[in-house]
């Protein structure tokens, strides 16, 4: 549950960043590119957290089966 909460936080951060990029009136493409990179980074972190928690659950289930 801790990793799921962390993933939710990362996804939320990514969506807030994306909303900020879409709502910005600035035409500065450098800022937009930087913000877009941050969104991708946050989404990849969230995906990695999800995959890791999924793998941990599988390993715990395998360990319980062995006992």
The secondary structure category is mainly alpha
What percent of residues are in strands? Answer: under 5%
- Count of alpha/pi helices: 2
Oligomer: single chain
Give me the Rg, rounded: 17 Å
Counted up, domains total 1
Biggest sheet architecture = none
What order do the SSEs take from the amino end to the carboxyl end, as H and E? HH
Helix content: over 70%
Please tell me what the overall shape is.
rod-shaped
Low-confidence stretches: none
State the distance separating the first and last CA atoms.
24 Å
Structure description:
By secondary structure, this protein is an all-alpha fold. The chain has one domain (2-66). It contains two helices and no strands. The chain has helices spanning 2-23, 29-66. Helix 1 (2-23) runs antiparallel to helix 2 (29-66). The longest helix has 38 residues, at 29-66. It is rod-shaped and about 60 Å long. The model has no long low-confidence stretch (mean pLDDT 76).
Task: Give a concise summary.
The protein is mainly α. 90% of the residues lie in helices and 0% in strands.
Topology of this protein?
Layout: H1 2-23, H2 29-66
Give a quick set of tags describing it:
67 residues, mainly alpha
């Amino acid at each position: 549950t801790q990793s799921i909460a962390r993933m939710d936080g990362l996804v939320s951060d990514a969506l807030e960043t994306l909303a900020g990029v879409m709502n910005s009136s600035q035409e500065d493409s450098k800022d937009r590119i930087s913000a877009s990179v941050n969104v991708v980074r946050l989404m990849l972190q969230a995906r990695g957290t999800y995959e890791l928690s999924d793998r941990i659950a599988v390993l715990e289930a395998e360990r319980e089966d062995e006992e």
